[in-house]
């Protein structure tokens, strides 16, 4: 009624409303049962329609009853109630504005409206909390049936309606409804509790919950701004972050909105102060919420960095705390401030001081004790550099620190360092300045410069020559004479600097007169100029007469400093490139990927020496790790196989230029790697031109005729390079035709193509053309690909070539006779020509032999299989009588001469017979000549002839086992004794191929192959390690002790060989126990006194090899094996090597126990410092982080080591031995059971030579002890 005499007080507990209250306090009179609720709700709904929102005053008990019976009533009842309450609150939001501004509002009306607001808001908030709990329970327990699922979906939309209604209400200034506008805390808590309840939902941070999240944030913002919830919100944020880690991003967004849109900046201070006051002990406890705090700080700083600066001093204290998570967060806050706020030229003095202080703090934590902090600080710096927020004066210092972090023990730190260095190079400020700028400032100012003009000029000559060539070109005879005089004067060292300076000054004057722009920037934007000028001290104001002079001097000083920084930066980049290049062969895939990406970056920005890394990564295209291989292929495609251009021709030209740049000075291995990359990436221009016509053989043949007439016509001998490329193109355009199913595509022998090819090859034999050999190889390959009976064609080709050569030699002899006498020089020249021609003939013989074998084993074998398949298919279709089929098969097998063998074996045997008989008959005429040339290096000393003969002989040896066996000794003699490195390298490659083809014949010669790893020429060693790597990793060669020769290459002076050896062991480590099985043998060979390896080199090699031993069982076994070898080691140096090897093992408890058990093996050698010190270092490693009991054992072992080292074994009793002796009752014979002194003499091997004695000594030592006891 209008004379309302009661007040509604928001209860602490819902149940309090049914208890007797104070004077004029509303109490619920009628709690309706669950069954009666639907009818009561209908009355409520009717009253709402008729009376409006004030009906809540009469029907509050109905809403309260729904709350009381929440667990019992249906979901539909609660949803109906919720809908009614939303309508009530929305209705109040509509009706209140006019009332709030009214000046004639009576106290009773105000109380009525106030009670309606409090009642409706109370019920709405409590029912919302209840429904939220139901929704959460259903979510956790799984959806039970369709109804529950629909309810959940519906609740998401209903929840938004509730929040929108509350926001709409609280946006009004309803404080005037209260006496003196003092809103009671319980009412506000009722709303805020509902908000925080909704935020506890695990999905609140998901994208689908964004509308709900935004509404909650805005509702809390209103309560903070207008209803005094500031302190409560600060406390609640901290509490909820502790318990709900996923809310860090939500509250970061909330605090950002409250401080900006609602203008309550104090909220950030409140929350940060609470976090800042957390002690290290609190944060260390489980459930402290340290991760949520850290994430919250990072995200708030990303949203409102400018508001973090006033509160940063509170957070800085955490940098000295124990929590590395908080240290990371504070560093990220500093990074955001530096990138977004304290950057640019417009900072005042206070801003610059803050910026410098923050940078100093970040730099300190590049050396933080925790690797995660170091990683994140490097990432912060990467963002700062990418944002161009790093002052120029700090570039060198930060870059030096980043290069230093490349040596960090943490892989993540190393990767982040590489990323930072790549960012430095990508945003290099020193590349913007031009030569004109430096020249103007350095040469046109007074001669007080630190850098001499002559020095600058010497460095700038190439670029300046292009820039001002026209100005310095002589235009008259007098100027030409003057220039000649100046050039002549360059010989005199005293005048050189003066002439250079005079010329440079002339250029500087020209540049000033013509108003040359002194700065050009790559992007053309003002950002770069601000970066260049950033942090340079402002020029102080001077008196007018001194201002000009001091300004010029200031510019000079700035330039000098800038040039110094440029030099420092360049040196650091060079150092970084050299270090990161070595990481390309690390075992960690992610580091290799980062190193590859860095190499791409430096190459794209044309950094000096960047090509070294790009070339070094190339062998990784053979890596067994797919991620590394893909990274390398992607890098090369990005750098070289992604041509730019508007037309196909332009793109093709760009592609050719890129690949040509890479091919300069490339080795055979590099070319093979490139072929692997290019094979899937490049489509040649010729391929593109015929791609639409590939299905038509006639089109292919017409292209052949065109190419023959243009590139292989009458003038073919004038340009063998063009002819070679034409042959390669023909191979490409006929490739799809040759590989199609059905009968093979072959052209008749009298086709114009083969006529041209054979004539060009034969005529080229007697010519000296550097491109003939590559043309010949491609021509022979094409003949075997396309010609019918290519063996006959090539036989005639060789006969014709030999006849032409003999005719030339005969003609030369007749000329000599006709002349009667001739000069020695002319005769020698003629012999040289004959040697070259003979070399070319032998090269053609070898090439024919190689492709003939390939033709038989590929084309002929494939054709036999195809015909057999057709025959079988045809016979199946005919389904003739079984007897007829059997007769046909018997007839075929009788013709082949191998009745009863399988079809595949029959075909393989047929090809072997052809190689042994018919093929040798075809090519045997040249074999004696090859053997003679290879076997008489003194007589046939011409390099080209020797090289061609050896290569051809190896290709002949591929034909059959008999030829291989007959000449294998000669080939290895050539490998060891040839004076030509190219011959030795070719022999290694050839013998590698022969090892694959005839492994049984080559197996006894394996040691001779390994011997080339110690060749004096780097190119031969490189070829040897490449070939052996392939043979070993493909299981062609068994891995034996000779692999120690590969281990020696780990310290090779050639860095590329070093990398190949490292790659060998990295790949070998992927095979089970391979390196573990080899290690004892490698140690024996490397520590052999006859090898004479220094202890430093031995340690370096062993350190790398032992890094592959990671299993405890392997470590334990190796400890025992190495300890046993102390007994048979002959020299003190070998003892030391064994001790060092033990110290390099990653020792575990089991390994340490085995070391103790083997005490007798090495205890008598402990007087040697080289044995004692490495073993002592083992105890130091074991003590770190050891448990007390194990630590006591380590200490006791160390005491024994030290005692024996200082006093000698004979003066120290072993506790274990004493116990054993007492048990056995032979305490009187202690001295007999001690380990005998090592035999100083050497044992003799079967051959009578001194042996290394590194075999397992167990049996011999056991026998020796028995004899002593007797």
Automatic annotation (TrEMBL):
Residues 862-881 have a biased composition (Basic and acidic residues). Residues 77-233 form the Condensin complex subunit 1 N-terminal domain. It is found in: Chromosome; Cytoplasm; Nucleus. GO terms for cellular component: condensed chromosome, centromeric region; condensin complex; cytoplasm; nucleus. Its main location: nucleus. GO terms for molecular function: histone binding. It comes from the Eukaryota. GO terms for biological process: cell division; meiotic chromosome condensation; mitotic chromosome condensation. Pfam families: Cnd1 (PF12717), Cnd1_N (PF12922). Keywords: Cell cycle, Cell division, Chromosome, Cytoplasm, DNA condensation, Mitosis, Nucleus, Phosphoprotein. Residues 982-1142 form the Condensin complex subunit 1 C-terminal domain. Residues 472-501, 523-552, 862-896 are annotated as: Disordered. Residues 474-497 have a biased composition (Acidic residues). InterPro entries: ARM-like, ARM-type_fold, CND1/NCAPD3, Cnd1_C, Condensin_cplx_su1, Condensin_cplx_su1_N. PANTHER family: CONDENSIN (PTHR14222), CONDENSIN COMPLEX SUBUNIT 1 (PTHR14222:SF2). Belongs to the CND1 (condensin subunit 1) family. Regulatory subunit of the condensin complex, a complex required for conversion of interphase chromatin into mitotic-like condense chromosomes. The condensin complex probably introduces positive supercoils into relaxed DNA in the presence of type I topoisomerases and converts nicked DNA into positive knotted forms in the presence of type II topoisomerases. This is Condensin complex subunit 1. The gene is NCAPD2.
